[in-house]
Amino acid sequence: MQRDRGTGWILNAAHGPAMARRMSTVWYFAYGSNMSSATLRGRREVSCVRALPARVPGWRLVLDKPPLIPLNRAFANIVADPATEVLGVIYEVSLDDLDHIELTEGVRIGNYDRVEVTAWPLSRADAAPLAAFSLTSAKRDASLRPSRSYMDLLIAGAIEHGLPDPYIEHLRSVPADPDDEEAVRWRPIMDAGMRKRNGHGTG
């Protein structure tokens, strides 16, 4: 038997690697639409052990990432910036669910890259820093703006998890465009791609 360093649980080799992956958990830092339970738990069907509002120093939120699919809209991204920090939500998830998040965010095809960050929970009871995984991309396009419905998800997630009011007001101030017909047509396809297949992920 061995003790999992991330969870403290003792894993028996007889359980097999599949059970070990389900029992082992990691922290995932969300800063975009995954802050909202409607996206992460609803559309992506990810189960979370815990969710905590947090800040990550050394990174900055930008909303100019080109989409994976042919939509004239921007999505959230973080870029390295030692002078600032980004706020969001850290979720404790299984390794299988982290794989599902990364699969549906296009990590395998270069849409985002995994990055390890240091997250500081905003609540006093959980003040110690936590190592977490997040997503970043070098792809940027200043000509793009996010959709209003996308920004509404960020704002809803920030409110849901109690992020500070000034940050919520910052999100509300981001210029956004209404959804066009093309985005509406793509929405069911995107939703289907986010869901797990037979409860075991999409891969």
The portion of residues assigned to helices is 25-40%
Number of domains: 1
> Mean pLDDT across all residues, rounded?
83
- Beta-strand residue percentage: 25-35%
**Biggest sheet layout:** 5 strands, antiparallel
Radius of gyration: 17 Å
Residue windows where pLDDT falls under 50 for at least 5 positions: 1-15, 198-203
| Count of DSSP H/I helices | 6
Helix/strand/pairing class, anyone?
Answer: alpha+beta
Briefly, what CATH class?
Answer: Alpha Beta
Shape: globular
| Strand elements, count | 7
CATH architectural grouping: Roll
| Biggest sheet strand line-up | 3-5-4-6-7
What string, H for helix and E for strand, traces the elements in order? Answer: EEHEHEEHEEHHH
Predict the CATH topology.
Answer: Hypothetical upf0131 protein ytfp
The end-to-end span amounts to 29 Å
CATH superfamily: Gamma-glutamyl cyclotransferase-like
Show the helix and strand layout.
Elements: E1 2-3, E2 10-11, H1 16-23, E3 25-30, H2 37-43, E4 50-65, E5 75-94, H3 95-104, E6 113-121, E7 130-136, H4 148-160, H5 165-172, H6 181-194
Antiparallel strand pairs: 1-2, 3-5, 4-5, 4-6, 6-7
Quickly describe the structure.
The protein is 30% helix and 31% strand.
Overview of the structural elements:
There is one protein chain. With 203 residues, the chain is of the alpha+beta class. It has one domain: Gamma-glutamyl cyclotransferase-like (Hypothetical upf0131 protein ytfp). It has six helices and seven strands, in the order E-E-H-E-H-E-E-H-E-E-H-H-H. The protein has helices spanning 16-23, 37-43, 95-104, 148-160, 165-172, 181-194, and strands at 2-3, 10-11, 25-30, 50-65, 75-94, 113-121, 130-136. The strands form two sheets. A five-stranded antiparallel beta sheet has the order 3-5-4-6-7. A hairpin with an 8-residue loop joins strand 6 and strand 7 (130-136). Helix 4 runs antiparallel to helix 5. It is globular, with a radius of gyration of 17 Å. The two termini are 29 Å apart.
